[in-house]
Amino acid sequence: MKTDTKKNSNARKLKKEKKSGYAKLKIKVFLQTLGMIVLAFCIIFTLYRRFWFGRVGDWIVAFLQNVFHLDYWDARNIYQYGLRENLSMIIFLSVAFCFLLLFWFSLSWFTRYFNEIDAGLDKLIQGENKEIILSAEMAPMEQKLNVLQQTLERRELEAKLAEERKNNLVMYLAHDIRTPLTSVIGYLSLLEEAPDMPVEQKAKYVHITLEKANRLEQLINEFFEITRYNIQQIVLEKEEIDLYYMLLQMVEEFYPLLTQKGNQAVLHSDENITVSGDPVKLARVFNNILKNAVAYSYENTQINIFVEKLPAGEISITFQNRGKTIPREKLASIFEKFYRMDEARTSNTGGAGLGLAIAKEIVTLHGGKIYAESENEQVVFVVELPGN
């Protein structure tokens, strides 16, 4: 309820700011329109007054006499029957001409704002790294265009960095694939060349070959993972999930991997906690986080998983493990795609750096958030999902 009230308050505030954003422009347009009306009225009144009192008539009669050499009465008759009796039509045409002229000037004045906006959009299209400056009355539009320019520049930079990381990743993986492949070919060649090799030595070579083949499979799978990440569109199929059972099952599945390093995963959760979401996608999120916790935990340490309901109703899932402290400046980047391979590509646990990036997308689609904290050789990953 408090969240809805806050959203409504923010919406009203935004609407109010939007209404008052072009106040200067409204005032200027109003004053200019008022000025044109007053000016048109003065011109029309002056013309009408002069025609009414006959001053213009005297000038016209004198003009006809001097230019066409007419006598006074002939010139007066021309003015009387040709102009005076058509005075209403002349005044109407004068009013129309005056109005059209002022309207033209008004349009010319107003369209300069569109020309300024058009010039600003041209800068955006051409990618010019220059501040967009508009008239003072267009300050809200100027601010939005500059924000848009900064957003486009930031996205372009992020896209370049992501593309660069992906290219480096592909290059690293291609290089790393050659190592296990060379080993596989080498050991298989030895087995083929020496069929009478002692059983123990043959078993050793087969075991090494299998390890290298598994590593080769992992690297090839990472290539496919990169391709899927770039082309897939994540679609959620939500249902009621028994969160306790999902995490408990996951801990049991990780038992063989945990025992290799003497680690242990302990789940701290109420057995009745449920959440609405896509079970397959959320399982992938928790799997990726737990996999990282296992890979980077110190040996013979405990990994704790805490599940609790927050006061605001959200469900918090926290993964806590003992491991090397992650520098603060890198915490904000660990959810970027391809980030991990920059430093861990040579290790056996090194992956494509997509797990946490995909996890963030899935959590965001669920309306939740994911973040990491690390200090004093402790690493914590927190996933917050909307409650039922």
Structural account:
Helix 2 (23-53) runs antiparallel to helix 5, helix 3 crosses helix 4 (72-83) and helix 10 runs antiparallel to helix 13. The radius of gyration is 40 Å and the shape is elongated. The protein has a five-stranded mixed sheet. Strands 1-3 form a two-stranded antiparallel ribbon. With 388 residues, it is of the alpha+beta class. The longest helix has 55 residues, at 139-193. The model is unreliable at 341-349 (pLDDT under 50). It has helices spanning 2-20, 23-53, 55-68, 72-83, 87-126, 139-193, 199-231, 243-253, 255-260, 279-296, 328-331, 341-344, 355-365; strands at 239-242, 264-268, 274-277, 302-309, 315-322, 369-375, 378-385. The protein has three domains: 16-130, no CATH class; 162-231, Signal transduction histidine kinase, dimerisation/phosphotransfer (DHp) domain (Helix Hairpins); 239-385, Histidine kinase-like ATPase, C-terminal domain (Heat Shock Protein 90). It is built from 13 helices and seven strands.
Looking at the structure, what is the overall shape?
A: elongated
What is the arithmetic mean of pLDDT?
78
Helix proportion: 55-70%
Kindly identify the CATH topology of the largest domain: Heat Shock Protein 90
